[in-house]
Amino acid sequence: MPDAHLAQQFDDPAQQREAAKLGMWVFLMSEILFFGGMFTAYITYRVDHPIAWVIASHHLDFWLGTTDTALLLISSLTMALAVHSAQEGSRWVTALFLTLTMILGLLFLGIKFFEYAKHYGEGLFPGFNFTYKGPYQREIFLFMSFYFTMTGWHAIHMIVGLGLLSGMLAITLAGKFSKAWHNPIVITGLYWHFVDIVWIFLYPCFYLVNTR
Amino acid sequence: MISKKTDIWVAVALLVLLVLTAWLSKVNLGAWNLAAAMLIAVAKALLVVIFFMEMKVSPRLMWLAAAMGIFWLGLLVGGVLIDVGTRVIVLPH
Description:
- The complex is a heterodimer of chains A (212) and B (93).
- Chain A is elongated and about 65 Å long.
- Chain A contains 6 helices and 2 strands, in the order H-H-H-H-E-E-H-H.
- Helix content of chain A is 77%, strand content 2%.
- Chain A has helices spanning 13-48, 50-57, 62-88, 91-121, 137-173, 183-207, and strands at residues 124-125, 129-130.
- Chain A is mainly α.
- Chain B has 93 residues and is mostly helical.
- The chains are: A mainly alpha (212), B mainly alpha (93).
- Chains A and B meet through helix 1, helix 3 and helix 6 of A and helix 1, helix 2 and helix 3 of B.
C-alpha cells in the first residue's frame, strides 16, 4: 500500500515530502531568529567588553568544548546516513544509525552537564553559585550568563531532538516506514542538523575567544 | 539524492575544519582570529545545509526559505549594531 500515507491534497508522495520539508524550513526560520536574538545580545556586549570576554573564555574547558563539537558533527553524519537508509527502505540499518545518533547526542549532553557541574563548583554559575572575585568580575558574570543561557537553550533543543529520535526509532522498529513514506525521519533529520549548526556557532563564540 | 560517499567526505571535511579552527584559536592572529573562527563556522554550516540537509537537491523554494531566515537574521543583527555602534556617551566621565 504505497499510497496509504498520501494525503488527498497532494498529487504524489514527492510533492507531499517537499511540502513537509518546506514546513520544517519555515519553522527553522523562526528558530534562526530565536537564537539570533541571543546572538545579537551576545555580539553587543562582546563589542563593549572585548578583554573581559577573552579572560572569561579561558575559564571554559577548551578540550571538552572541542570534543562536544566533534561528537555533534559525527552525529550529523549518522543522522544523514539514517535518512539515506530510510530512503532505501532498509529498516535495521535505519534503526542502527538512529541509535548511533542518539548515543552521540547523549554523550554530548553528558559532557555538557559535566561542564555545568564543574562551573557550578568553581563558583562561575550566575544566579546559583557565583563567587568569582577578581578583575572584570561583572563582565565575567555577564559572559557566564550568556554561556549558560545560550548553551542551555541549545541543550533543551538537543533533549527535544533525542525525544524525536526515540519516536523515530520506535516507528522504524515497528516497521511503519517504507521506501515510499518516511517523511518524519527526513523532518527530524532537518531539525537535528539545525541544532548542530547552532552549536557550530556557539563553539567559537564561547570556547575560542582568544584575542580581541 | 546525495550519495553516502559524499556524506562521509563532508563529515571528514567538517572534522578537518574543526581541527583547523581549534588550532587557529591557539595562534595569535590579532583581529583575524575572530574573522577566521567565523569564516570557518560559516563554511561548516554551509556544508551541513548543502549536503546533510540536502539543499543541493532541493527545489528553489527551499533555498528561498533558508535564505529568508538568514536575511531576517541580518536585519536583526545589523539593525542593532547600527544603533549600538553609533551611540554617543553623554554622561560625564
